[in-house]
Amino acid sequence: MSWINWLFAPRIDHRGWQTPSEASRIFLIITLLIVGWWYWESTHENLAIWIGMTILVSTPILTLGWYFLSLVAKNRDVQLLTPKVRKPLEEKGRLPPQFKNP
Q1: How far apart are alpha carbons 3 and 75 in whole angstroms?
Q2: What confidence tens digit (pLDDT) does each residue in 20-69 have?
Q3: Per-residue H/E/C for the chain
Q4: CA distance 57 to 80
Q5: Close Cβ partners of 22 (under 8 Å, ≥ 6 residues apart)
Q6: Strand partners of residue 76
Q7: Above pLDDT 90, what percent of the chain?
Q8: 68-92: per-residue pLDDT in tens?
Q9: Alpha-carbon torsion angle 69, 67, 64, 59, nearest 10
């Protein structure tokens, strides 16, 4: 698996639901850090206002970014969230075909 597929492939959890890709998770952390850093001085170090502004400004940025990341991930095969997810998925019969042993 190439690093591009690893980064953009949706992850499947123990219930069989598709969860965000690694790129989406990294984008969340980077966006919150940059917006939080940017607004810290502007809010005069007032914690309540800083949290509110960070959430307010991050929300549309994350919405657009996640939309574009979903377009990139659209035709990629899902990957398991962690290796331990395989057993519950096998027990429930929800394991995707690419993970089943021939």
Answers
A1: 16
A2: 999 999 999 999 999 999 999 899 889 999 999 999 999 999 999 999 99
A3: CCHHHHHHCCEECCCCCEECCHHHHHHHHHHHHHHHHHHHHHCCCCHHHHHHHHHHHHHHHHHHHHHHHHHHHCCCCCEECCHHHHHHHHHHCCCCHHHCCC
A4: 32
A5: 6, 7, 8, 11
A6: none
A7: 50
A8: 999 999 888 888 888 898 888 888 8
A9: -100
Q: Quick one: pLDDT at residue 16?
A: 83
Burial of 40 from C-beta contacts in 10 A (0-12 / 13-18 / 19+): middle
Question: Under a CB-based contact definition with an 8 Å cutoff, are residues 99 and 12 in contact?
Answer: no
| Residue 102 confidence (pLDDT) above 80 | no
